[in-house]
Write a structure and sequence with these properties.
Elements (H helix, E strand, L loop, with lengths): L8 E5 L3 H12 L5 E5 L3 H13 L9 E4 L2 H4 L4 E4 L15 H15 L7 E4 L4 H12 L6 E3 L3 H15 L6 E2 L2 E2 L7 E2 L5 E2 L2 E2 H4 L6 H22 L4 H15 L4 E9 L4 E10 L2 E5 L6 H38 L3
Parallel strand pairs: 1-2, 1-4, 2-3, 4-5, 5-6
Antiparallel strand pairs: 7-10, 8-9, 10-11, 12-13, 13-14
The chain binds nicotinamide-adenine-dinucleotide.
InterPro entries: L-lactate/malate_DH, L-lactate_DH, L-lactate_DH_AS, Lactate/malate_DH_C, Lactate/malate_DH_N, Lactate_DH/Glyco_Ohase_4_C, NAD(P)-bd_dom_sf
Enzyme class: oxidoreductase
Family: Belongs to the LDH/MDH superfamily. LDH family.
Length: about 325
């Protein structure tokens, strides 16, 4: 007889600034019964587990926090990947690709065999490219591999539009789609406040200058925070925790999430219904001509980066095989 499942577990790979903030958010809500922390830096890992466990003893949260191996992580309900290098001030997300792709490869070889029911949530950057390769390296169905994508950029958009319109951020229905990076774009044509189209809610304000300044804000917000404190962690910690909640609670929330787009040949953010099995379905989105062109440009840029990364991975593989032959392995 199969045993009843008693725990819901979330493994966090990488317990630096983002991983530990996510763990704290999961504990405080609480969203699951167990958080498994994994990091190569053993002292940091033990310290984070102790510190996070201390936050559970006050009685508000019964979440158990423990250190685990990559193999343990591979059996969790959700594996969140925050492991990887982060941007320095002025550095682009794409510049992290080579380092973080190699980390991703090593993570999947250490986690194997990964549970066929695990949902993977990519946070490390460049998140759209890593989501694409995680899908290949994990062997999991496409619907089970998601990236936080432009969820954070969309939250920032809600924040700034709410300020301009003097309403609550939760009343803003507007998305940033495409890449979590420089080629992202705002879907102005279908943005609403409540059910009111944006141009009626902000009469006379939607000038090209206004739109350009809001786009610059959502695209560049991370850079200003990183310049001052060396990382961003609270916004992304909250976004990643919310996505974990949509999954474990099968909430079917519609969010801009990065996932594989077969017709575009890459992973990027489009609105999706998120539930217990990951991406339940994509939601069609109405784009005007400009937005469609922006989506195409964004996808073509991401495809170019993927091609370059595929070449790098295959050169690495050839080198590894050649070294094995030399060493007589
Ligand atoms: N998607 C988003 O919106 C978003 C937002 C903020 C940060 N990020 C990204 O998240 C990543 C983490 O940022 P951070 O500030 O927490 O960095 P950090 O340096 O504080 O933490 C990264 C941790 O990963 C660990 N690590 C490295 N290789 C590992 C492996 N193989 N297995 C387990 N752990 C490993 C490191 O030891 C380190 O502790 C970065 O790539 C950053 O760009 C993404």
């Amino acid at each position: 007889m199969t045993q009843p499942k008693l725990k819901s577990s979330i493994a966090i790979l990488g317990c630096g600034d983002v991983g530990s903030t996510l763990a704290y958010t999961l504990i405080m809500q609480p969203i699951c019964s167990e958080v498994i922390m994994v990091d190569l830096k053993k002292e940091l890992l033990e310290a984070q587990v102790r510190d996070l466990s201390d936050s559970t003893y006050g009685g508000r949260s019964g979440v158990k926090v423990r250190a685990g191996t990559h193999k343990d992580a591979g059996q969790a309900d959700i594996v969140v990947i925050t492991a990887g290098a982060k941007q320095k001030h002025g550095e682009s997300r794409l510049s992290l690709l080579s380092r973080n792709l190699h980390i991703l490869e090593s993570i999947f070889s250490s986690m194997a065999p990964i549970s066929p029911h695990t949902i993977l949530l990519l946070v490390a950057n460049p998140v759209d490219i890593l989501t694409y390769f995680a899908r290949k390296l994990s062997g999991l169905p496409e619907s089970q591999v998601l990236g936080t994508g432009t969820s954070l950029d969309s939250a920032r958009l809600r924040g700034i539009l709410a300020e301009k319109a003097e309403v609550a951020p939760s009343s803003i229905d507007a998305y940033v789609l495409g890449e979590h990076g420089d080629s992202q774009f705002i879907v102005w044509s279908s943005a609403t406040i409540g059910t009111t189209p944006l141009h009626l809610a902000l009469p006379g304000k939607l000038t090209p200058e206004f739109k350009a300044s809001i786009s610059a804000h959502t695209r560049g917000a991370a850079g200003a925070i990183i310049a001052a404190k060396g990382c961003t962690s609270y916004g992304i910690g909250n976004i990643a925790a919310s996505i974990c909640k949509y999954i474990l609670f099968d909430s079917r929330s519609v969010r801009p999430i990065s996932f594989y787009q077969p017709e575009l040949g890459c992973c990027l953010s489009m609105p999706a219904v998120v539930g217990r099995k990951g991406i339940i379905k994509s939601m069609p989105v109405l784009l005007d001509e400009t937005e469609r062109a922006e989506l195409e440009k964004c996808a073509s840029g991401l495809r170019g980066v993927i091609e370059g990364a595929e070449k790098e991975l295959s050169a690495d593989e050839q080198l590894r095989k050649a070294l094995e032959v030399d060493e007589g392995v």
